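ARCHIVE CARD
Drawer: 12
Card no.: 0347
Subject: one protein chain, sequence and derived structure
Cross-reference: see card 0346
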Amino acid sequence: MTPKATTRFRQVTAALAIVWALLALLVGVRARLEASVAPGVPFSMSSAAGRHVVHDVAPAAAAAGLERRDRLLAVDGVRTSAWLREGRRLELGVRNTYRVQKPDGRILEVALEPFPPGARNFPLETLVSYGLLAVGLVYLAIGVWVWRLKRDRRESWALLLFCAITSALLVLVGPQEPPVATMIGLTIPWIGAAAFHLFTTYPMEPHWAVRWPEVRLATWLGAALLAGAELVAPRLGAAGPWIDAAVTFYASGLALLCVALLTGERFRSRGHPAGARADVMLAGGFASYVPVVAFLVWHFVWGTSFPWALSLLGFFVFPAAVAWGVLRRELFDVRLAAKSSAAYGAVTLGITGLFALTITFADALIGRFDVDATSPMFSVAFLFFAILLFNPLRVRVQGLVDRIFDRDRAAYRRAVREISEAMVSMLSAREIVDRILVAVSDTMGVERSMVLLMDEAAAALRGEAARGDWDETAARFTLAPDHPIARALWMRRRELAREDFDEEPDPELREECRDVFDTLDVELLVPILFGVDLLGIIAVGRKLSGEGLGPDERQLLRTLANQSAIAIENARAFDEIAQLNKTLEARVDERTRELRDTQAQLVQSEKMRSLGQLVAGVAHELNNPIGFVHANLQLLDEYVNRLLQRDLDSEKRKKTQEAIAKLLLRSREGTERVKQIVQDLRTFSRTDQAELQQVQLGDEIDRTLALIEGRLKGIQVVRDYGELPPVRCYASQLNQVFLNLLMNACDALDGKGTIRIRTRRDGDGVVLEFEDDGPGMPPDVLSRIFEPFFTTKPVGKGTGLGLSLSHGIVARHGGTMEVASRPGAGARFTIRLPLEPPPQLEGA
């Protein structure tokens, strides 16, 4: 399937699962409400796997011989499963015959009247019913929450399917109503398939699941077949209970198989980066699945004296554990937390026991010597001194436990401190790299590590230094800056592991990134970033202990990368300064010329780009008068031929002469229009090395408007010119500014709106305002509007240089350029220029 089709399939199936869960919630709540106002059986029971076991009885039922663990076989001659599905109502005052089987195999039939509404009092049944309703809502909430936050990841989708289907079962367990029994039978088999899909997707996908994805499909097909069998079970008579049992144990068996598979995969993949998530998921699976399956078997084989569904109340542990792992890529070290908790518990228990032993010994000693210890003051004083005696011991033991379990963190903190102090004086990149490798190898205990630095000359990341056993291919490894994994490190700005690319939709890109980890045989790649530059990469292999790199190790690597980035940049800056000192003046002159040439080229290229946009409009403006003159010439030819006729009377000759005069006058007007347009274009195309001159800015704005007359169709231009004194400036450069502002306004208005141009004198300068009533700009665009190469136009429609160059031109003239805008309120650009430019503009 294509990535788009996969996404659509996940969305549709997720929506179906949520709808089924909500439908089950509606049916479950309605069944509970109906059960509270309808007559009920005089006992409570729990049903699963085709077995219906009594676990509490009313006094009347007990007197008739019903006991806990009795199996209800039939009601009024109808098998219990069929009776529940058919939903036969109980009537007050009418006895119903219940056929039960005792634990010893005896069959007993009793006739009992139903209890009136509200008279049944089985608190444990009520607790289980409403407790499971709450747990079901938690399941659904967790699934939807994770899906909403991580919709692009397949484990989120698998978790949502499992949570939604399990939620449907949980909210249905409890009430004994006809639609409930049917929906439970239809829901149970899908739980097993959803669990199998989840466990074989997250946190570690087994190799056989990758090789044979049909295995997952087979579990879903099995669930579909069992759900179909459950629909026809009422028509199969004695075979119906066995179908119920098959449905139940299909789901529970797959659940246990999932836990076993993940356990085996965890032991086989020791040291895998996803080990912490697997530990959390296994802990949640054992805490949730094992008790439920155990109680199901107990219920099926021997019968329980309490509702087996009581074990489902702790079922929320599993989705919570999985959600924690899905949402948090870096988990705490579960093993370390468990060991430290056990150590604290053992120490606390030991100190408490020693304290109790001391108190007991003191009581015996006091009794031995007949000391009067009955006084409360004596007891309080003795306890006070005992606490003072044991408090130093408690503090010392607690400190010892902290040092034992915080040993790695202390070593990491010490390493960071030593590296920070050492790198201050390092001015060699190789020395810095070697120091990093020592810290990574010795402090973290990894089997191999390498630092790749950017080689500017070769435009590639090359291995600068390495420690550990590297083969020849890995030692010569180079990475291009445009490689997908280099781009990912630069863009994500954090360490990356192989499994971070599991959800990459492009298979070629995914394999290309994985190949880097496989070639280097490393577990983690950490970027060395300085600002927006990728200086290098720290490649770290697995730990010698076989454990994965946990959050503490990752934090140490991030700190090392940050410290080394500063040190490497300082070393490079030192080298550059040393080189610059040799030829400082020559380099300054060279850079100044380069910058000046680049600036001139940028201004000229932007002007040419703007002129290119004017070509269509100017061509149209030129075609009109030229076409008009051409037509006049044709008429003029006819009139001249008429004048050459000798027999033409004087009256016609006079009219012909007048017509020729008019044609010549109007043709002259057309040629003057062409001449003016060409003159305006020549003004625009002047190089930036033109002399400073006194200019009337109002005339320059009008000239610019004349050039873009073709772009102003449908746009009203309002001129509000005040009296302006001449301004000494480079007219062609300011024309470029006016053109950029007016062209941008035309683009924003898109052929409909108003442009207002205001000019006025302001002290020793002038103020020019260009305002439009277009859509305006949001704050994030407004803050970057003068940045070079920033543009909101599509590719090919703008370079992002126009406003940046315009801002620079105004600044070089000693002026300022400001913009004010908000969404829906247009934009206003304000230019302030002095009458005399700064001295440094001379010759610029």
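Annotation on reverse: The chain has a mean pLDDT of 77. The first strand starts at residue 43 and ends at 48.
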